[in-house]
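Propose amino acids for all 544 sites.
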């Protein structure tokens, strides 16, 4: 097994088709992307004992006792800690294991991610069976969160090395999958829970087991589909563009241990953290925000949300769920669109666009709400979510431009601590400001206005951070001797012998490989298309 997973084993030979790598990356990212859709489990788990209605724990029960109690149900607020743990451990695990990934290769990291993510589902299923919430936190939250971090960064440096001519597009294709995972996983989980539900079970345990097996197998297929190019490989006929100095794309490499000592790393950390904080705040409040701002107008009934009856509020919630699904779709589309566009306009200009347009849109949204224009309001946030997704997909290419490709996966892993920070800052900021506004007497329909203006302010700081990014200074780059030492540590024994004066290796893809490429994309496209269709059906209710 050690030999099968070794880095030397996955160095591609002449004739390999680089278009086989993106589907492998998507297989992993579509699996771990279900982290965004875990809220589909909250309500069923909150009545795992009562089945029809939650069984409340005694009011005088202590916290530790409630964690171990087997005769009363869990609160949604406690179940939600799994979601928080995802964000914490996706960044921390990526930062800790990024250097290991670069040395050992993406296949070994992908297999480890499969065991963590799939195993996390299994441990959570045991937690449901024993009714021990700490097993859910440990299984899906901590162990699964480590799988998220490893799975998320596993294809980054590989794709950038295979597509030096289209860095943004390549990483956009893979990271698109993380945004799309919930589109597939959420409706699948809902159907499975309905299928497994009985008079004595809400069906979550069986759903966890089923999805854990599916994701484990899909991620293994993706991991074993990874190949890395021989050192120095370039696409045939491609050379760095002459305007390289203007687009700030380096041909040198910065060591992982020096990257965090540069101002560029911390400026990009701030860029990602601020962009994600604003976007994730919107995602977290999307459904209640739309319901409270427009109320009965969403179903052509006069009155605020509090003035509606139960049936009308249910209908409004259904429309708002379509809004959340629509945001998910635009999140995905933005990842591939903006990342691909960044190959032409540059990463710095891309982020200037994200922040510049974002400031205007966040500041305009309260006006759209005040005039009761649902279509304009929805359109504003759909566009915002394209730039939220685009920020995630563009940052790996931005890092490769700044620090080179040698350690880009590991550097990206450390930068993802910005995501962990944003995952806490964004939702907390939004929720507490909303509560403060309501307690101060502000109507619920207007309680989000201040929040949106503050999020626009965060983007101003992000814009300034991005403007301050400059090329890395010469003193941080690695020498040829240091590079050679790192190649030896990373076990990079190329199958293509390259002399110092010889051109870098390049080859035509084997003509027969295109059949396998087509089959791979079809296998990925089927579940993705199903997820998009389910999302569009849900979103259609918004315009019904």
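Proposal:
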């Amino acid at each position: 097994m050690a030999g099968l997973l070794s880095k030397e084993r996955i160095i591609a030979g002449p004739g390999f088709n680089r278009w086989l790598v993106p589907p492998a990356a998507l297989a992993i990212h579509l699996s771990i992307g279900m982290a965004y859709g875990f809220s589909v489990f909250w309500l069923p788990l909150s009545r795992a004992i009562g089945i029809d209605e939650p069984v409340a724990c005694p009011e005088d029960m202590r916290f530790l006792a409630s964690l171990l109690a087997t005769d009363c149900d869990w609160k949604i607020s406690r179940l939600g800690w799994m979601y928080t743990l995802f964000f914490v451990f996706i960044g921390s695990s990526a930062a800790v294991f990024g250097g290991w990934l670069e040395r050992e290769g993406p296949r070994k990291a992908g297999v480890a991610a499969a065991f963590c993510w799939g195993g996390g589902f299994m441990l959570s299923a045991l937690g449901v069976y024993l009714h021990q919430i700490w097993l859910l936190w440990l299984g899906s939250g901590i162990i699964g969160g480590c799988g998220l971090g490893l799975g998320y960064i596993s294809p980054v440096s590989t794709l950038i090395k295979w597509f030096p001519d289209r860095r943004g597009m390549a990483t956009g294709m893979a990271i698109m999958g993380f945004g799309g995972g919930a589109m597939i996983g959420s409706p699948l989980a809902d159907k499975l829970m309905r299928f497994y539900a009985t008079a004595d079970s809400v069906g979550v345990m069986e759903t966890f087991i089923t999805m854990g097996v599916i994701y484990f197998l899909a991620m293994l297929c993706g991991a074993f589909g990874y190949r890395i190019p021989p050192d120095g490989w370039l696409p045939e006929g491609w050379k760095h563009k002459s305007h390289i100095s203007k687009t700030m794309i380096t041909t040198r490499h910065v060591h992982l241990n020096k990257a965090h000592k540069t101002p560029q790393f911390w400026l990009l950390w701030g860029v990602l953290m601020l962009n994600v904080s604003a976007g994730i705040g919107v995602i977290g409040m999307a459904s209640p925000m739309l319901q409270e701002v427009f109320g009965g107008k969403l179903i052509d009934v006069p009155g605020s949300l509090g003035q509606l009856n139960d049936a009308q509020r249910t209908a409004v919630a259904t429309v708002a769920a379509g809004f959340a699904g629509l945001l998910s779709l635009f999140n995905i589309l933005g990842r591939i669109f903006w990342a691909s566009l960044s190959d032409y306009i540059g990463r710095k200009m891309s982020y200037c666009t994200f922040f510049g347009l974002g400031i205007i849109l966040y500041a305009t949204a309260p006006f759209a709400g005040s005039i009761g224009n649902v279509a304009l309001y929805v359109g504003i946030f759909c566009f915002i979510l394209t730039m939220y997704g685009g920020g995630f997909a563009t940052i790996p290419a931005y890092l490769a431009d700044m620090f080179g490709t040698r350690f880009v996966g590991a550097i990206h892993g450390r930068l993802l601590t910005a995501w962990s920070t944003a995952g806490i800052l964004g939702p907390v900021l939004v929720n507490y400001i909303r509560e403060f506004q309501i307690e101060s007497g502000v109507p619920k329909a207007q309680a989000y206005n201040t929040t949106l203006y503050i999020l626009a302010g965060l983007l101003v700081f992000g814009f300034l951070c991005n403007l301050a990014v400059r090329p890395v200074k010469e003193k941080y780059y690695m020498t040829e001797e240091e590079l050679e030492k790192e190649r030896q540590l990373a076990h990079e024994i190329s199958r293509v012998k390259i002399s110092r004066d010889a051109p870098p290796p390049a080859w035509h893809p084997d003509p027969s490989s295109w059949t396998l490429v087509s089959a791979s994309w079809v296998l990925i496209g089927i579940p993705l298309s199903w997820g998009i269709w389910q999302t569009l059906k849900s979103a259609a209710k918004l315009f019904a």
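DSSP finds 22 helices and no strands in the chain. The mean pLDDT is 87.
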